[in-house]
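hey so u asked for the seq, here:
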Amino acid sequence: MSVTIKSAHEIEIMREAGKILAEVHDEMAKIIRPGISTMDINRRGEDVIRSYGCIPSFLNYNGYPAAICVSVNDEVVHGIPNKKRILQEGDIVSLDAGVIYKGYQSDAARTHGVGQISPESQRLIDITKQSFFKGIEFARAGRHLYEISKAIQDFVEANGYSVVRDLVGHGIGRELHEEPQVPNFKPIGRGMKLRPGMTLAIEPMVNEGAYDVWVLEDDWTVVTKDETRSAHYENTVLITDGEPELLSYCENMS
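ran it, structure tokens below
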């Protein structure tokens, strides 16, 4: 397994890419309301990405036809934006976006409520985000990769939800998907030892019901088999000599 250790110069570029991506998410969040289409969100996201001179990571990636993955309710990830898919009061919508800045990638996801949502849906969103922060307590040099995975799974399951098994996080840098894979559940073993300069996209995908998923006929949209809701939270994370640095997260943003 070849894992790239980023130089100080590469980290600075990825730091800027992450700041731009945080802004993209902030701008998309501002337009979420009942009555807009998932395509409206995609257009807004792509416009902001290109306004910074960046390239959307996802557009045409392995044939994906849009800049933003927009997944509603029981859609876990990779929902394809559509002008006929109109958001309704009480929906939840997961936005997964990536940017390429000066040849380097950043990747992040957020789940939002549409209008007034149920307490149950809000709790799902909150636990998913909190599970990410539980995981990155172990994103430190000298710890092992699957300590992150175990912390996410333990927190999610202690709160009555399940972690998707068929999709995982990943390394990131010049490529959108690099080694290593970063599961949100504990595999056998400890995983590799973390080193400063590693950059990881850590992304819990959490279901209200069972963890089983399948792919719709569009060959992209992943949904829960039991049709329960799902939430997604992701940041690009830098392993340092101390606290992990969240490259795609700003305190005053989502």
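The helical segments are 8-30, 38-51, 119-135, 145-158. The chain has four helices and 15 strands.
lmk if thats what u needed
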